[in-house]
Specification:
heterotrimer, A alpha+beta (about 350), B mainly alpha (about 280), C mainly alpha (about 280), A: about 350 residues, alpha+beta, Rossmann fold, OB fold (Dihydrolipoamide Acetyltransferase, E2P), 2 domains, 6-stranded mixed beta sheet, 5-stranded antiparallel beta sheet, 18 strands, about 30% strand, C: about 280 residues, mainly alpha, MetI-like fold, two-stranded antiparallel ribbon, 15 helices
Chain lengths: ~350, ~280, ~280
């Protein structure tokens, strides 16, 4: 087990252009499951590839287990990586795929069989050992890739969107397996994804990246409930947080907190006039689309997410009184888009 | 819509092929009239002819020798060219010249380079002290049997190398870059990555390049014709050039046709292997 | 830390050594053609001279002789004419054939395509003897028409194979849409498929042409008179008188013939490779 640390890590692909990764400082905790979350182009994969040694940083330092590995080749870093495409060796059987790192690391030959069987057993693929990768399903390939990664007991696991090649149904079960797998091996793991659900479900902590800059590091609850800036606020959560410009501030509240005013006790609520337009019925909940009716909000679009058990029907075009609990309002500085101190506001 | 093309090709390939078989079992010469079936007589006389046996032997030496050089050379070159670098386009253009220029033209260029009197190679070699070459009696590249065969093999290799290289480059670029990366992370060094990952993954395409190479070499007479005319003393004569000298210049159509038919088994084997390769790649 | 760096440098150095030495070896004959073309005879045929440099002033005399006193231009013209006609025949026959093969469903289309491709492997050296009789019977001997007649036998298979690949990449729905919109199948082919595949067709034109310029055996066998030769045979045959090689003129002719073909070819290389490797890369 080891801790990964980056200091001022920067990668600029083309001189004069904006860096793909800019001055990233982070430290994993022992045995932690850390998720890099961001949209495509946010630099999360580049960051991971630098930690793996596949990309040379323009500046900055990488430490694994306290040792400076910035200039070491990937093979000298004692890490394991699972690629998005799994990168199984197509000409080798599953057994030989899993044994490859052992051979490459010159583990004595007598131990190979036992170690491969241990890794295969851990992932339940003992029966596949004599198949070639092309004869495997997507889920099986993922397990082989994991077995190949675990077999030499690496100090750090790197996973690059390993679930994105699976279909939606398989993805959920694979996610659960991954969770259980991590709780069993407890190796420090860095996981890259653009899927916020994956990030929330798997991560002990989440690093939110945007344009190569770390926007926030925190537990899933922290990044969701206490977003550091408007990017994090809108990137996490679906539908995204409503953001309303208000003097020097931007006021944000999540759609699930925008409810008919009668549902919130009067002393805690901030009320507003909701100009209802249309709704989507999603079974467990309803998504209501509309805008703020007060003139000063310039018909700003807002979304409400209403549990289906709330029985209320709305006429398209009608104006209804909605409200948000006061403590659920987040304030952001209008200029910097960073979180600012909460204030008392009243919109009616 | 497919038939016009098929009929044309069959007419210009299938008919002459049948005719070649018919000739091979006859005693037809240029200018002779009528057709006399002579059975296997042509084949018998060919198989008893030292010249033919020598040509068959030379053909195998020529093919095996140049294919080994081509495979090793093109694998090396393709691996070296895989990574993008400045000037790669220019290198690719220079490298392709031997394949693109008409064969006869490239070969005549070599004939000048290997000239008995003015060979630039000899000019350099006699000035390198370690070779101890006699300045007044330098190697006759095209005039001594072993050297002539070596020269023919090298020139043919020179011509086929670019073809094989571009095919291998295409094969290399089809390997997802994550796979060598994964090998690196798994701890593989340069040689292990090369021999356990890159080259095994290239094997199917190497196979294709080799099969093409065999066909293009075993049936080629241009390099031999231009450089040595089969000489000295038929020591570089190959099957196709012998067929040419016998059937076209010698006018013995029947024997020439019989000689060229000896290329058919090789072609059939190669065609079969190619079909198998094509079928296998469908399965994956 | 140092070990990784040193290894990286070694690998890079090896890469450069391979690239440079192969490029030099492969391109050297063409460099030699270039330097020979512009050397005076007195410079060429003097063993005491350093052959890598101009010991006497460069000269244009070989080029002048080549263009004025030999049939080089005539051969080049013959080659261009044969090339153009063969391209035409090839396109007329292989466009519909390739389209039919590309749209044939099931295993059959594939098999016919592969069979077509395999005929490309049938070498001239197998057929030149009977073909020379056929050519004589048709009265085409010693004329370029013999080549116009025979060359499509190897250009059609290869072109059909290449075009088939292009046509297969055009979605069927596109033609279906055109037919729903009122075109006939033939109309859809001419007005839709052909324009879309124009780059593929251009590739086929270039490769057919270069195959024609590269062919040697048939041209050598079918045509004797000097004035009716193709460039590939005329240069190595008629720029030599008996035992005397006119190296200056020869090398000039080689250089002038190779370069334009090489430049054209280079432009379309990638599509050409795709033709050879279909099925093998997966």
């Amino acid at each position: 087990m080891a801790v990964v640390e980056t200091k001022g890590l920067t990668k600029v692909f083309k001189k004069g252009e904006l860096g793909a990764v800019n001055d990233v400082n982070l430290t994993t905790q022992e045995g932690e499951f850390l998720v890099f979350l961001g949209p495509s182009g946010s630099g999360k994969t580049t960051l991971l590839r630098m930690i793996a040694g596949l990309e040379t940083p323009t500046s900055g330092q990488i430490l694994i287990g306290g040792q400076d590995v910035t200039h070491l080749s990937p093979r000298e870093r004692r890490i394991a990586m699972v690629f998005q495409s799994y990168a199984l060796y197509p000409h080798l059987t599953v057994y030989k795929n899993i044994a490859f790192p052992l051979k490459a690391q010159k583990v004595p030959k007598e131990q190979h069989k036992q170690k491969v069987e241990w890794a295969a057993g851990l992932l339940g693929i003992e029966k596949l050992l004599h198949r070639k990768p092309r004869e495997l399903s997507g889920g099986e390939r993922q397990r082989v890739a994991l077995a190949r990664a675990i077999v030499r007991e690496p100090t750090v696991f790197l996973l690059d969107e390993p679930l994105s090649n699976l279909d939606a149904k398989l993805r959920t079960s694979a996610r659960e397996e991954l969770e259980q797998f991590h709780s069993r091996v407890k190796t420090t793991t860095i996981y890259v994804t653009h899927d916020q659900v994956e990030a929330m479900a798997l991560g002990d902590r989440i690093v939110v990246l945007h344009q190569g800059v770390v926007r926030q590091i925190g537990t899933p609850k922290e990044v969701y409930d206490d977003p550091a800036d408007t990017f994090v606020a809108t990137f996490l959560g679906s539908p995204p947080m409503n953001l309303i410009p208000e003097e020097r501030d931007i006021v944000g509240f999540r759609p699930e907190h925008l409810l008919p005013a009668s549902l919130i006790s009067p002393d805690q609520r901030v009320s507003m006039h909701f100009h209802f337009s249309h709704e989507e019925y999603l079974g467990a909940e309803r998504i209501l689309y509309g805008s703020l009716a007060d003139k000063r909000f310039e018909a700003k679009d807002v979304i409400s997410r209403l549990p289906s058990r709330v029985e209320a029907s709305f006429e398209p075009g009608s104006i209804v009184e909605f409200a948000v609990p006061r403590n659920e309002l987040k304030f952001f500085d209008r200029a910097t888009e960073k979180r600012s101190e909460p204030r008392v506001i009243s919109w009616q | 819509m497919f038939y016009p093309a098929m009929i044309y090709v069959l007419a210009v390939i299938g008919l002459p092929f049948a005719l070649a078989v018919v000739y091979a079992f006859s005693d037809i010469k240029v200018g002779s009239v009528g057709y006399h079936f002579v059975g296997l007589q042509n084949f018998k006389s060919i198989l008893h002819s030292a010249t033919f046996l020598r040509a068959l032997y030379d053909s195998f030496i020529f093919t095996v020798g140049s294919q080994i050089l081509v495979l090793v050379g093109s694998t090396l070159l393709a691996l070296a060219l895989e990574k993008k670098f400045r000037g790669r386009g220019l290198v690719r253009f220079l490298m392709l010249l031997p394949w693109v220029a008409p064969v006869s033209i490239g070969a005549i260029g070599w004939k000048w380079i290997l000239d008995s009197l003015y060979s630039v190679i000899n000019w350099v070699l006699v000035r390198v002290p370690i070779f101890h070459l006699d300045k007044f009696n330098p190697p006759q590249w095209l005039g001594e049997p072993a050297l002539a065969m070596a020269s023919v093999i090298v020139v043919h290799t020179w011509r086929l190398l670019p073809f094989s290289t571009v095919i291998l480059l295409a094969g290399l670029s089809a390997i997802p870059k994550e796979i060598p990366e994964a090998a690196e992370i798994d701890g593989a060094g340069f040689w292990r990555k090369m021999f356990q990952i890159n080259i095994p993954m290239l094997l199917p395409i190497l196979n294709v390049a080799l099969l093409f190479g065999i066909v293009f070499t075993f049936t080629d007479m241009t390099v031999v014709y231009i450089l040595t005319r089969g000489g000295p003393y038929d020591t570089t004569q190959v099957v196709p050039s012998l067929a040419f000298f016998t059937g076209v210049l010698g006018g013995d159509l029947s024997e020439g046709a019989a000689i060229s038919l000896f290329m058919v088994p090789i072609l059939v084997i190669v065609a079969y292997l190619m079909l198998r390769a094509a079928n296998r790649s469908e399965v994956t | 830390m140092a070990r990784g760096r040193v290894r990286e440098l070694l690998v890079e150095g090896g890469r450069w050594a391979v690239v440079v030495s192969f490029s030099v070896a492969l391109a050297f004959p063409f460099y030699w053609m270039l330097i020979t073309t512009f050397k005076q005879d007195a410079d060429l045929y003097n063993t005491a001279n350093n052959p890598f440099i101009f010991n006497l002033k460069p000269t244009l005399v070989h080029l002048q002789v080549l263009f004025r006193d030999t049939m080089y231009l005539r051969w080049a013209g013959n080659t261009a004419l044969v090339g153009a006609l063969v391209v035409l025949i090839t396109l007329v026959l292989s466009l519909p054939a390739a389209y039919a093969l590309a749209r044939l469903t099931g295993k059959w289309g594939e098999r016919m395509g592969i069979a077509m491709f395999l005929t490309y492997l049938v070498p001239p050296t197998l057929l030149f003897i009977p073909l020379s009789r056929v050519v004589a019977l048709l009265g085409l001997q010693d004329t370029i028409w013999s080549l116009v007649f025979v060359y499509p036998s190897f250009t059609i298979p290869f072109s059909t194979w290449l075009l088939m690949g292009f046509f297969k990449s055009i979605p069927r729905e596109l033609e279906d849409a055109a037919m729903v919109d009122g075109l006939t199948r033939f109309g859809a082919f001419v007005r839709l498929v052909v324009p879309i595949s124009i780059s593929g067709i251009l590739t086929v034109v270039i490769f057919t042409f270069t195959l024609v310029t590269q062919e040697f055996v048939y041209a050598l066998t079918f045509i004797a008179p000097e004035r009716n030769q193709m460039v590939g045979v005329g240069v190595p045959t008629f720029l030599i008188r008996g035992d005397v090689y006119f190296w200056g003129e020869l090398m000039a002719a080689c250089l002038i013939t190779s370069l334009p073909i090489a430049l054209l070819y280079n432009l379309f290389l990638d599509r050409f490779i795709a033709g050879f490797t279909v099925g093998a890369i997966k």
